[in-house]
Amino acid sequence: MSDVELLSARALVLSDLGARGFADAEGVSLLEQALSERRWWVEQWPDGLVFVAGLVATDVQDALLDRGSRWPTCTTCPSVEEHALRVDPEIGGPDPHWVCETTGQAIAPLGRLTAA
Predict the structure, then answer these.
(1) Cβ atoms of residues 16 and 57 within 8 Å
(2) Are 30 and 60 in contact, with CB atoms under 8 Å apart?
(3) 59-110 confidence digits (pLDDT tens)
(4) For the whole model, what pTM was predicted?
(5) Domain locations in the chain?
(6) Residue 54, CB half-sphere, CA atoms under 13 Å: how many?
(7) Which alpha helices (DSSP H) does the chain contain, by range?
């Protein structure tokens, strides 16, 4: 198995973590943990490699939520309530992008979030 796709997934998610202020020690540690777990997953199902970037992003998002942090939040809606973005398609790929969980509007491709 090639590590190119896993490294690409790491770069995309790290870019989005950085864009929204979560590329600190905790965020990067959660990213590395997600990559480690998905490496095993891809070894078991090589055809799933096309889905790995979106799944890693979702894994990091879930891990941060478990720790009380919502990432990434939507900054485009006029909604008063803070709400998150989610990866679409839900399985993570191909061509994963962030969408507003409230409106369903596409916000940015994975790896292309901008600062809030």
Answers:
(1) yes
(2) yes
(3) 999 999 999 999 999 999 877 788 999 999 988 778 999 999 999 999 999 9
(4) 0.94
(5) 4-109
(6) 21
(7) 4-19, 25-44, 52-66
